[in-house]
Amino acid sequence: MKSLKGITTAILLLIATGYSYGQTSSLEKDKQEVIAVMKAYKDAIQNLTTEGTFELFTPDASVYEQGKVEGTYAEYIDHHLGPELGHFESFTFSDYSINTTINLPYAFTTENYLYTIVLKEDKIKGTKERIVESKGVATSILQKIDGVWKIIHSHTSFKKLNQ
Predict the structure, then answer these.
(1) What three-state secondary structure class fits 86?
(2) CA distance 108 to 30
(3) Whole-angstrom Cα distance, residue 90 to residue 82?
(4) Helix (H, G, I), strand (E, B), or coil: what is residue 99?
(5) pLDDT at position 19, please?
(6) Does domain 2-160 have CATH number 3.10.450.50?
(7) What is the Cα 74 distance to its own chain's centre?
(8) What is the pLDDT of residues 15-53, one digit of tens each?
(9) By Cβ atoms counted within 10 A, which residue in 44, 92, 102, 120 is the most buried?
(10) What does pTM read for this prediction?
(11) Which residues lie below 8 Å from residue 88, measured CB to CB, with a gap of 6+?
């Protein structure tokens, strides 16, 4: 009887450990997928493009920047970021870190970074190339929809370093 009890305990322990490992492995996979979404967005901005970014957001995703409601991601691109990218010579992130929390079907991210924007010279307006350095933070909420992580909410803010 003792050996049957011992075997049963060992089997239950193996099942519980395997389940826990599988659950942890699945959460780690989700975390890496969320980080990949955020990296794809950051990489696009560094490449001064919005191409491929619409797939990262839901159509009704809300965007907030520097205390302002920008609307949906499409509105943000049309009225703010899209035109703005045309004035940049370069946009680079440094000292980047991301913290990700998974609480299915949602994920929450906080990104911290420095960024440097080199503005293009405007010969018509007579402005010279200018460099803007800022410290930024972004919080995003993603939702897993049909097995794919999508940004449903994004809020960024920054503080200029070279005023």
Answers:
(1) coil
(2) 12
(3) 14
(4) strand
(5) 46
(6) yes
(7) 17
(8) 554 444 555 689 999 999 999 999 999 999 999 999 999
(9) 102
(10) 0.81
(11) 48, 117, 118, 119, 120
